[in-house]
Design goal:
The chain is of the alpha/beta class. The chain has helices at 62-74, 83-94, 134-137, 188-197, 206-215, 231-240, 258-265, 267-281, 297-307, 329-334, 350-353, 356-362, and strands spanning 16-17, 29-32, 35-40, 45-56, 99-101, 107-110, 113-116, 125-131, 145-150, 159-164, 170-174, 219-227, 246-251, 286-292, 312-318, 343-346. The strands form two sheets. Strands 1, 2, 3, 4, 5, 6, 7, 8, 9 and 10 form a ten-stranded mixed beta sheet that branches.
Length: 375
């Protein structure tokens, strides 16, 4: 997502804790973002990357109240808003003002095995790579997922999800804004309104398409330039509109970190780098890249299709314009040297359901959830 200059008014007031302990305090919160587990040929075991965020939802101090009121004014407070709209806005912007907790080293348990994660950074985010015990990986959920639990969390019960991906299979890498959710990214005012004021609206037909693909064994990777602070609302949107569960990769964002703004303003770098990492991590899997024409998805995906021709089997671009013209100079340049049957420009997702790739997929049996070693 390209974020408008108006958001710069928010900068410089995010407060972060400097010191921390390894035990979660009662006023601290932790969220784990759904990630993927994979077979490691070198160690001959299943491993998973863990990613989470620890913060204190402190929003009532004077500075945060003042900043919230300023943002409300910038957004046009009082312009035919009802109580639900203002409550929605306050809830969404509040997460950008949370007190990030740094230097917290958390511990999780997968089955009977305890694992220490890396200490949290200044933005409250932490990561870690963990081994998945055989007893756990041999009994995944019906959707190929396993759960882990945060230790030393007091009275809170905090869990996370790992999607087990076989070395071979199908992965759908999906953008969010204007691909599965109507955002109007090219209109900055409407982008702000749809992001912070309004209920999220799905792109018609995309949830049914993704459910069909998931039923055929595909794993969905939701990968967006949206900030991690919107994860709560995006995951609720996914569940409400029955998009399949999947992994999430969003931008780590901290108001007073210039690097965060650089990543927001250069999606072609951030998004392309993250997708390339996914392709390299799963060299035996086939990928479908799904995006839209509102920003740089055609150019990013076209370059990836040329670089990884054996893995990127399809590129699907939703046209945000009323017309769909594959011969437009932009698309012929973006997909130069990419075989014509490898990319589709669409307006109606029904076009994708009738594509040769999806028709062939329907003729195959669903891929079973992975267990044990590689297949």
């Amino acid at each position: 997502m390209r974020w408008p200059a108006a958001l710069l008014m928010w900068g410089g007031l995010m407060l972060s804790s400097v010191f921390g302990q390894d035990r979660i305090k009662s006023d601290e919160r932790v969220v784990f973002f759904p990630t993927a587990g994979t077979w490691n040929d070198e160690t001959r075991e299943w491993t998973a990357d863990i990613h989470g965020w620890i913060y204190e939802p402190e929003v009532n101090d004077f500075l945060r109240r003042q900043l919230t009121e300023r943002i409300l004014a910038v957004m046009g407070r009082g312009r035919d808003w009802d109580d639900a709209t203002e409550e929605r806005l306050r809830g969404r912007i509040s997460r950008f003002l949370y007190d990030n907790e740094r230097s917290k080293q958390l511990r999780i348990t997968i089955g009977e095995a305890a694992c220490d994660l890396e200490p949290s950074a200044a933005d409250g985010h932490f990561t870690g790579q963990v081994r998945i015990p055989e007893a756990v990986r041999g009994n995944p959920g019906r959707d190929g997922t396993i759960e882990f639990r945060l230790l030393e969390s007091g009275e809170q019960e905090i869990r996370g999800t790992i999607h087990l991906l076989a070395p071979r299979g199908l992965s759908i890498v999906s953008d969010v804004d204007d691909t599965i959710k109507v955002s109007d990214v090219r209109n900055r005012q409407r982008l702000l309104e749809r992001t912070f004021l309004e209920e999220f609206v799905p792109v018609e037909g995309m949830a049914a398409l993704y459910r069909d693909l998931a039923d055929r064994g595909a794993t969905i990777h939701y990968l967006s330039n949206s900030p991690c602070q919107l994860y709560f609302d995006l995951e609720a949107f996914r569940a409400e509109h029955r998009f399949p569960a999947g992994t999430w990769s969003l931008n780590r964002f901290r108001l007073k970190d210039p690097g965060s703004w650089d990543r927001m303003l250069t999606p072609e770098v951030s998004k392309g780098t993250r997708i390339e990492a996914l392709l390299r991590r799963f060299p035996g899997r086939q990928f479908v890249l799904v995006g839209d024409s509102g920003e740089r998805d055609p150019e990013i995906y076209g370059e990836l299709a040329r670089t990884f021709p054996e893995q990127v089997r399809q590129v699907w671009i939703r046209s945000v314009d009323e017309t769909v013209d594959r011969e437009a100079p932009r698309f012929t340049a973006a997909f130069r040297e990419v075989p014509a049957d490898r990319w589709i420009l669409f307006r109606d997702p029904a076009v994708l359901k009738e594509s040769p790739f999806v028709r062939t997929l329907r003729e195959t049996a669903p891929v079973p959830a992975p267990s044990g070693g590689p297949r």
